[in-house]
């Protein structure tokens, strides 16, 4: 079975290896230049209290616009590859055999169809995980100097977002999480193929399903994998970190800025002493936008506090391990479902 | 010796529709059995159940004493050439044989390559470029080289032109002569069955209408032609399978153990095709063979 699986997968494997080599060359060459710039900037040995912020800003300002393009391209590629793998490797794996009738040939050799499926899933699944893992490794290595510079307090955070590697737009393109996504995408594709039994609809379903998971997961699930860290501080209405917005309906919104390098901010609320969210009570003191002092004095008397809920940068690897493990377990569950379906239901 | 195939109350339901219902039959081992019947009789469903491609909804089926598709040992004993003889379009003939060798412990590479040579096929040829007949021959080669005890073929020649059809059945007959194996071959064309089979099962609407050795069936059935009025006065041990009336003449398909003689009536030998059509029309409750010839084809 291994021979046939490899023979059928060979062309796709060659495509994947060629693409990996091309990306490795592109990011290898520019990555060496990036690492050289980083070393030359002196950031590696800077003193946090003295020159780190300035050196980091100098370093990022030296980066030409093509680094921004390469960074974004790399992020997109690492996100896209598991989806493409699910659509083009996973979905047709069984669906094409059912559609073309070749499963009747395959299932009538001296190999049980459970084993047939296991070999297929193992070969394609491991290839997918290796591809995604290598890609992520290349990108993580390439972007490491930028990630380090963007975590230094006082640096302009170009080109990464304020949350650095925990930013939902970045997290899934770094570390080991793409390996889990790739395994899951393959299993999702195969399961769609086994259930739908037609290649093209299975591919479309896989794409839609995987995209939905990639959108819903960081919004609803990931923030709660580890219970968020919280800080509560007093709100000083006279501070420069406070922004007041007078709404059209007469209410008032307080925007307190908060920044911790590399942290993923989940929520930032202003609360009243009894623990409720401050909704900007319609106060007489703040009814006249021209008398700003009356308003800030009144706000000061309200004993408002700022409640920040966030995931600190130090949890990056914990999140990575959790997420990878969860997606590999999901992939295994889908693979088991496929095996159960094809042995139990048959197909004809 | 265990039967090649034994079904008892076998049924397969798709949604509300029964593709095969309450089917009980025995296919003897060591024979080349033709399974014949109109489209929709349940032949393909029965053979897919026999190879474990499908799981039965009701009843049971045993093939060479084992449960179909139950494990590598069972799979090894049964070779299957599925309907439309599927092959991997992107793979060459050599790839197919390599696959067969890798996936079957009993694979005989000598048989496989000898057959491909005899067919004058280029091993480097992709299956997609093969004609229907060549593809069927490739599928047959894979099933034979696996060295099964039972070879099951589901309408293997249905989509082939007459020449390819004859060559395929020829190849099958040669294999049967060389190797000791049981064969079950389904078809809705009696001519195909007649060429290679020595045992016949007529299946209509999941029911076995008649089963037996071809020579015995032909010896015990007779075609009588005589005047219409005398139809009732037949010996009691004669079984009328089919009666058809044209003008004042009556034709009867009769099954009788002993010799058949009737004054004023012409007695003819029956062809296998007439015999099969007779049983199919009996099943349909009709008396006019002409109508059923259409249904049978």
Mean pLDDT of chain A: 88
Poorly predicted ranges of chain B (pLDDT <50, ≥5 residues)?
A: 286-297
Give me the CATH architecture of the largest domain in chain B, please: 3-Layer(aba) Sandwich
**H/I helix tally of chain A:** 10
Radius of gyration of chain A: 26 Å
Q: Tell me the span between the first and last alpha carbons of chain B.
A: 35 Å
Description:
The complex is a heterodimer of chains A (348) and B (297). With 348 residues, chain A is mainly α. Chain A folds into 2 domains: 2-226 and 315-344; 229-313, no CATH class. Chain A has helices at 2-41, 52-62, 65-100, 103-106, 113-150, 168-171, 177-196, 199-221, 292-301, 316-344; strands spanning 229-234, 242-246, 252-256, 264-271, 305-311. In chain A, the strands form 2 sheets. A 3-stranded antiparallel β-sheet of chain A has the order 1-5-4, with no helix packed on it. A two-stranded antiparallel ribbon of chain A has the order 2-3. In chain A, helix 1 runs parallel beside helix 5, helix 3 packs antiparallel against helix 5 and helix 3 (65-100) crosses helix 8. Chain A is elongated. Chain B folds into 2 domains: 5-205, 3-Layer(aba) Sandwich (Rossmann fold), CATH 3.40.50.300; 219-296, no CATH class. In chain B, the strands form 3 sheets. Chain B has a 6-stranded mixed β-sheet with strand order 5-6-7-3-8-9, sandwiched between helices. Chain B has a 4-stranded antiparallel β-sheet with strand order 11-12-10-13. In chain B, strand 11 (239-246) and strand 12 form a beta hairpin. With 297 residues, chain B is α/β, with parallel strands linked by helices. Chain B is elongated, with a radius of gyration of 21 Å. Chain B contains 10 helices and 13 strands. The A-B interface holds A 1-4, 7-8, 100-105, 107-113, 344-348 and B 48, 51-55, 69, 71-72, 75-76, 78-80, 82, 84, 86-91, 95, 98-100, 102-106, 139, 142-143, 146.
């Amino acid at each position: 079975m291994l021979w046939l699986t490899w023979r059928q997968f060979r062309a796709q494997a060659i495509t994947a290896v060629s693409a990996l080599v091309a990306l490795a060359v592109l990011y290898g060459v520019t990555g060496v230049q990036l690492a050289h710039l980083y070393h030359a900037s002196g950031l590696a040995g800077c003193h946090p209290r003295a020159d780190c912020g300035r050196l980091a800003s100098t370093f990022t300002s030296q980066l030409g616009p093509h680094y921004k393009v390469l960074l974004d391209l790399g992020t997109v590629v690492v996100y896209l590859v598991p989806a493409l793998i699910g659509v083009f490797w996973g979905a047709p794996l069984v669906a094409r055999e059912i559609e073309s009738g070749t499963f009747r040939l395959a299932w009538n050799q001296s190999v049980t169809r459970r084993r047939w499926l296991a070999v297929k899933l193992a070969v394609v699944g491991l290839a997918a995980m290796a591809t995604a893992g290598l890609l992520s490794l290349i990108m993580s290595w390439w972007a490491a100097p930028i990630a380090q510079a963007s975590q230094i307090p006082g640096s302009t955070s170009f080109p990464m977002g304020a949350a650095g590697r925990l930013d939902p737009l970045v997290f899934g393109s770094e570390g080991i999480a793409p390996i889990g996504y790739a395994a899951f995408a393959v299993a999702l594709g195969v399961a769609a193929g086994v259930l739908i039994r037609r290649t093209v609809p299975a591919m479309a379903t896989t794409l839609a399903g995987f995209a939905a998971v990639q959108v819903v997961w960081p919004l609803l699930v990931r923030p709660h994998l580890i219970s968020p860290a919280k800080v509560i501080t007093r709100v000083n209405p006279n501070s420069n970190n406070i922004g007041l917005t007078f709404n059209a309906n007469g209410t008032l919104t307080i925007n307190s800025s908060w920044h911790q390098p590399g942290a993923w901010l989940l929520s930032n609320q202003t609360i009243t002493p009894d623990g409720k969210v401050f909704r900007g009570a319609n106060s007489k003191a703040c009814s006249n936008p021209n008398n700003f002092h009356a308003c800030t004095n009144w706000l000061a008397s309200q004993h408002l506090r700022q409640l920040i809920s966030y995931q600190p940068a130090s949890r990056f690897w914990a999140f990575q391990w959790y997420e990878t493990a969860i997606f590999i377990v999901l992939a295994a569950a889908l693979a088991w479902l496929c095996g159960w379906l094809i042995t139990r239901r048959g197909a004809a | 010796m265990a039967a090649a195939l034994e079904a008892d109350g076998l049924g397969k339901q798709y949604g509300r529709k029964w593709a095969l219902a309450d089917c009980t039959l025995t296919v003897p081992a060591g024979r080349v059995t033709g399974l014949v019947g109109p489209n929709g009789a349940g032949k393909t469903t029965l053979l897919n159940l026999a190879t474990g491609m499908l799981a039965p909804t009701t009843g049971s089926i045993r093939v060479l004493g084992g449960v179909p598709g139950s494990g590598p040992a069972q799979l090894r004993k049964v070779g299957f050439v599925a309907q439309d003889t599927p092959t991997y379009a992107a793979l060459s003939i050599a790839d197919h044989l390599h696959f067969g060798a890798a996936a079957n412990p009993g694979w005989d590479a000598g048989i496989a390559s000898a057959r491909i040579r005899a067919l004058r096929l280029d091993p480097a040829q992709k299956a997609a470029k093969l004609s229907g007949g060549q593809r069927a021959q490739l599928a047959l080669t894979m099933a034979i080289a696996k060295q099964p005890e039972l070879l099951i073929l589901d309408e293997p020649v249905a989509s082939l032109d007459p020449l390819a059809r004859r060559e395929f059945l020829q190849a099958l007959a040669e294999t049967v002569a060389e190797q000791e194996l049981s064969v079950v071959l389904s078809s809705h064309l009696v001519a195909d069955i007649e060429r290679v089979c020595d045992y016949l099962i007529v299946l209509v609407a999941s029911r076995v209408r008649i089963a037996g050795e071809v020579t015995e069936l032909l010896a015990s059935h007779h075609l009588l032609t005589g005047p219409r009025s005398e139809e009732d006065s037949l010996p009691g041990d004669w079984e009328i399978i089919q009666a058809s009336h044209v003008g004042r003449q009556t034709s009867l398909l009769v099954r009788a153990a002993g010799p058949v003689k009737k004054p004023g009536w012409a007695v003819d030998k029956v062809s296998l095709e007439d015999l099969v059509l007779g049983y199919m029309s009996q099943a349909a409750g009709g008396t006019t063979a002409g109508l059923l010839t259409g249904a049978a084809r």
